[in-house]
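The following block was generated as part of the benchmark described in Methods. Ligand: uracil.
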Amino acid sequence: MRLDKMLSECGVATRSESGKAARAGRITVNGISVRKADQQVDPERDCVVYCGSVVRYRKYVYLMLNKPDGYISATEDGRGDPVVTELVPEEYRRMDIFPCGRLDKHTLGLMLLTNDGALSHRLLAPKSHVSKSYRFRVKFPLSESDIMALEAGVDIGGYLTKPCRVARNGERDGVITITEGKYHQIKLMMEAVHNQITELERISFGALTLDPALSRGEWRELTAQELAELQKH
Ligand code: URA
């Protein structure tokens, strides 16, 4: 692979930045300074140092983000609102990460950001039935019959939702687990039982569970084990 391609895939530098850095003698490959950024390297084996930092090659990155309130699940054009990718360093944005699925502007919690389109596609495909759990709070008390209706499936604008699980913690809060992802699904499901979501936080997505050590707006890379579990889908 070309050195400048490797550096741009890793989010380290654009091709033109790599060219300039090479001419300035600021890139080494296996300890030897290179003058041209178009030379071939083996990204898995060669030791590339860019401006004093060792470059770790990886094509894909996987981040767990604890989405705060008010952020849009997009990479750009939040129409005045901030977008979730602004919460992670530039290095990842240069690797073209995007949110895997959407959370509404006021929904909080677990979000996967990645540049692995194939995995994202698999996780979001309706036939994958990936389960997602949300902690919710509603405006009015939820009755047993509301829960039975939600669990059996309710009509949201002409679509009958698939069976799901609802575990109530108090009169007005609990955890709902669904295996599909229609637009505003939980909000609309609660409206179908004449209620209203006042707080919604995603706490799990497939094999991933929101890390309680992450405060709102914080992120971290997935561990190898988390990624392996996620890839089993
Ligand atoms: N359901 C909703 O209504 N909103 C979300 O953000 C996610 C699921």
